[in-house]
Amino acid sequence: MKEQALNQEFFHYYNRLSKIQKESMLHLVKSFLEKDEDKTKRVSIEQYNKELEEAEKRISEGNYVTHESLKTEAKKW
Fold it and tell me: If the chain, 77 residues long, is cut into consecutive pieces of 10 residues, what is the mean pLDDT of each piece?
């Protein structure tokens, strides 16, 4: 579908919505855009290395869950 036709159809339906429905739709559109923005955010090398060091520290302290223990725990749910 060409963009012009798509826009026309969108506005045809949009104009039929109530005020509350329009507000809800606006919220939905904003949430789509926010998710796209989140995907483009990158952490710095410093932050990445810091997170790795913190994870390695937790592992060396024994603060982790093995796959087997998680499977055992999940069976209790």
Answer: 92 93 92 73 87 94 91 89
Q: What is the dihedral of CA 17, 21, 22, 25, to 10 degrees?
A: -120
In the DSSP assignment, the letter for residue 20 is H
Q: Is the full-model pTM beyond 0.85?
A: no
- Residue in this structure with the two tokens 């339906």, named with its chain if needed: 13
Nearest-angstrom CA–CA distance, 42 and 52: 15
Contact between 24 and 14 under an 8 Å Cβ cutoff? The reply is no
- Residue carrying structure tokens 């579908």: 1
